[in-house]
Design brief:
Elements: E1 2-3, H1 14-38, H2 41-67, H3 82-110, H4 118-146, H5 149-178, H6 183-210, H7 217-228, E2 236-245, E3 248-257, H8 263-280, E4 284-292
Helix pairs in contact: 1-2, 1-4, 2-3, 2-5, 2-6, 3-5, 3-6, 4-5, 5-6
Length: about 300
Amino acid sequence: MTQETTSSSARDLTRYAWLSIATAVVTIALKAGAWYITGSVGLLSDAAESVVNLVAAFFALIALRVAARPADKSHHFGHSKAEYFSAGAEGVMIFVAAVFIIVAAIQRLITPAPIENVGIGLAISVVASILNGVVAMLLLRAGRRHRSKTLVADGKHLLTDVWTTVGVLVGVGLVALTGWHRLDPIVALLVGLNIIVTGWKLVSESAEGLMDVSWPKEDNAELARLMGRFTGGEIDVHALRTRESGHQRYCDFHLLVPGAWSVNEAHDLCEEIETAVKKTFDGVVVTGHIEPREDPRAYRDYETEVAIPRD
């Protein structure tokens, strides 16, 4: 028997992708202007990452549209895993930006050049950074609330952009103060290496999601405690497993009851457990399997499961 719920996370989240796209367009214009005014390779690398942000935002838009589609004849469990492809693609895009930044930095390190109009360029970049920071916070908050891997990845990418800009601003400011022109490409090089780490994390998290990763440890522990409330006497719960698929969550369990119970008695208890899980965890699809506790076959289950505490 299975009980499904409609998660609030399944709502159309594409408005956040459009916000990300609009932000990327504005920041590209601002940062490109700052680079044109100053000639700083650090600011050029910053603008390049914003171009990647724009491409990644379009990936996010497509993924969110696909993930919002309901289940159909070919996809009985919906399309929520599409979000992992977007998060993975965004990680790859970050790698591309990092390579561009590192190459440009090495070229300028070999052939240093002076920076001009530093004050105006820095002011423009600060505005772009503030805009990215505000939107990043909105995306991360929405992503965590709706359990959207795409929005979380996009928010982390924008935060990486913010830190990139901060690093570049510090470097450009120090160049203006010290007159050491090679400091500009050195900062750009460090920024490039830093965002490679962020890209790797995004790709790794996407790979885990595609492999049906279990719920976070704290959620599994809370679920196990909830299940433990229904054990005792002639009743037991075991074979508890969880997995995540984009914004959608799944859990299944086996309910051991006396073989003499009627179908209605076992069904009522299973429904009670499923209802308790739904109230505790928003948007979870729960599957309960009823077994007679006297049957030895009921205990031949899985090698790995969530341990349920028992008094």
